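Predict structure. Chain length: 118.
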Amino acid sequence: MVVLVPGAMLVAMDARPRHLESTVLSALLAAALLLPAAPGPAAATDDGRRAREAVQSGRHVGLEAILEDALRRFPGRVLDAELDDDEYEVEILTLDGRKIELEYDARTGRLLEVDVDD
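Prediction complete.
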């Protein structure tokens, strides 16, 4: 399991222009994907390297596209985004306070499952 944006709080800023939200989101995601993995166990570093290579080679859809789709469906704040094997798992706290968990196929970007916690 690779945590691409651990604990990040990306906000769908409904009071601000959409282009600003997109710019902030793009910058944070680029940093998460392009920076070397944080120091830690060798396995975590290898997982991060493999994840970056999969996105750069086109085997996986980029996290930016996944998060854009997730926030379009459920505006709010991204609580967590992970790449686990060939699935992205995204958790969002919606503007009305619900926690949404989405699973996407990392190869195609297709939404596989939505779990809503009221």
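Summary: The longest strand covers residues 76-84.
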